[in-house]
């Protein structure tokens, strides 16, 4: 059975395949649907720290060729169950936002962009929690997930090389990678394929700069 274009993009994004993804997804980007933040107890509105399309175009240097993937701008964590089930247990989290960000999310937003001429993908995501201790707990749990996957026999195929600091995680596999930073009450994620390594750094820096002092 042929795989739908969106499924191909999801596979490329979630798996962070080193070969990249050349499938273009057409259609119009839609406003993010209402999410889990209606009764949020977080002091930070994640929508206020997300970068808009013009900022992402400027940072990536992709100009008008960088577009939001239709239906991949959402305010709910997404688990790709068919891919999670096919992964080793230690690495299932790669395909499951609910595992990556944990069960105590107050607010969430993730947007994925495509750059077909360069076979590139880049996403920005943020989860907000009710307080700093809860955000730190989610980050520490993610550190354990990364370590468990990375140190397993399947690690090289799923996370590649990874680095963990007091407040950040970085994984690199071929031309792709994932970056996470915990700051205040927010856990920020930037994932990418086939963009220069400086690009996710700049995206992360600009998102963090929007956090209230």
Per DSSP, the total helix count is: 7
Mean pLDDT across all amino acids: 86
Major pleated sheet: 7 strands, antiparallel
**Low-confidence region ranges:** 1-11, 15-33
How much strand? 15-25%
What is the molecular shape?
globular
- Assembly state of the chains shown: single chain
Number of strands: 7
CATH architecture: 3-Layer(aba) Sandwich
The CA-CA distance between the termini, in Å, is 51 Å
Q: Which superfamily, in CATH terms, is the homologous superfamily?
A: PknH-like extracellular domain
Strand order in the largest sheet: 1-2-3-7-6-5-4
**Strand/helix succession:** HHEHHEEHHEEEEH
Number of domains: 1
The first-level CATH class is given as: Alpha Beta
* CATH fold topology: Protein Transport Mog1p, Chain A
Q: Which class of secondary structure composition applies to the elements?
A: alpha+beta
State the share of residues found in helices, binned by percent: 25-40%
Q: What is the rounded Rg? A: 16 Å
């Amino acid at each position: 059975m042929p795989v739908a274009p969106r499924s191909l993009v999801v596979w490329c994004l979630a798996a962070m395949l080193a070969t990249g993804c050349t499938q273009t997804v057409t259609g119009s980007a839609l406003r993010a649907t209402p999410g889990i933040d209606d009764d949020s107890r977080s002091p930070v509105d994640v929508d206020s720290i997300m970068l808009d399309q013009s900022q992402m175009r400027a940072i990536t240097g992709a100009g008008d060729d960088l577009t939001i993937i239709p239906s991949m701008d959402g305010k709910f964590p997404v688990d790709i169950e068919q891919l999670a089930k096919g992964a080793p247990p230690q690495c299932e989290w790669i395909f499951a936002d609910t595992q990556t960000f944990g069960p105590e999310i107050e607010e969430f937003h993730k947007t994925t962009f495509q750059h077909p001429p360069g076979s590139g993908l880049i996403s920005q995501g943020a989860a907000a929690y009710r307080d700093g201790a809860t955000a730190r707990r989610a980050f520490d749990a993610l550190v354990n997930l990364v370590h468990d996957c990375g140190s397993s026999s399947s690690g090289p195929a799923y996370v590649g090389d990874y680095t963990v600091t007091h407040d950040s995680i970085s994984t690199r596999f071929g031309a792709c990678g994932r970056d996470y930073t915990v700051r205040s009450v927010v856990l920020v994620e930037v994932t990418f394929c086939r963009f220069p390594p400086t690009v996710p750094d700049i995206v992360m820096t600009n998102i963090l700069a929007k956090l209230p002092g």
